[in-house]
Amino acid sequence: xxxxxxxxxxxxxxxxxxxxxxxxxxxxxxxxxxxxxxxxxxxxxxxxxxxxxxxxxxxxxxxxxxxxxxxxxxxxxxxxxxxxxxxxxxxxxxxxxxxxxxxxxxxxxxxxxxxxxxxxxxxxxxxxxxxxxxxxxxxxxxxxxxxxxxxxxxxxxxxxxxxxxxxxxxxxxxxxxxxxxxxxxxxxxxxxxxxxxxx
Length: 199
Hints:
Rna Polymerase Sigma Factor, Chain: A, Arc Repressor Mutant, subunit A, 9 helices
């Protein structure tokens, strides 16, 4: 129960459980922006993120009576976000597989054709910031779900590996490995961009 005293989100959940309906409004106000940001970082600028945020808080409503403050509230709600985001990606993959293979598409759908386009400028002619940003987004998007979420939570949310392990329902050691593999994958994918920039 220590989290109920130290953690603002846990305090609000416990107050809401005790009958303070305004506490739920405060929870939504305090955490909806963070939930939105996490959905955006995980899924990209896709449509339907508003619905995802609503689904997260619907899950919170359903869990009202069962909630126990055994971890930080943000850790608990981020686990809900992760599960819903992964479910959304899997549904999208299933829908795309029914439509047949997509040339050049990633697991999340069509992205770009994987053949050389001679009409575009060669990267060695000078990197544009937008190209690097697109490359980073694409590289992050290609990471497996667990690696991507672990990296996002470590880098952008500055969460400890212990808390990330709670979100992803695994061990701290596994999180260290996921973050390490994610960083190595990004380094490998982005190496050509930075080699060109340095030459």
